Amino acid sequence: MESAVMRLEEALSYKERSLTCPKCGYEFDILYARAVSCQACRRLIGELYCDMARCPQCDHEFPTTQRVVNAVRKLQNYRPHDHMGYPL
Asked: What is the rounded (10 degree) CA torsion for 73, 79, 83, 88?
């Protein structure tokens, strides 16, 4: 049986979610940044979407690419299903 995490990984590949900080060059996952760097951001309270990213290494905030914006929107619309295809 396929797990919900595996299906989420398929829905959002690392390549789609990855960003490179223009200041320090650190490559990171936007989901990691949302969990670590953006915890207290007022723009994210109550919703997952924000068009900015904050580097977990140097704390530099910068606009995300359209590719990452689309990946985060996919995540907002993602609904896991069981092995038979029924919503959980």
From this structure: 160
- Which element (helix H / strand E) includes 74? helix 66-77
Question: The whole model's pTM is what?
Answer: 0.65
Residue 25 sits in which domain range? 4-77
Alpha helices in 13-61 (DSSP H): 14-17, 30-36
DSSP structure class, residue 25 = -
Q: What is the tens place of the pLDDT at every residue in 24-80? A: 999 998 888 888 888 777 776 655 567 888 999 999 999 988 877 777 777 666 666
82 belongs to a structural domain: no
27 to each of 33, 36, 38, 42, 70, how far by Cα in Å? 11, 14, 16, 24, 18
Q: Please count the structural domains in the chain.
A: 1
In a domain, 59, yes or no: yes
Residue 2: pLDDT above 60? no
3-class state of residue 71 by DSSP: helix
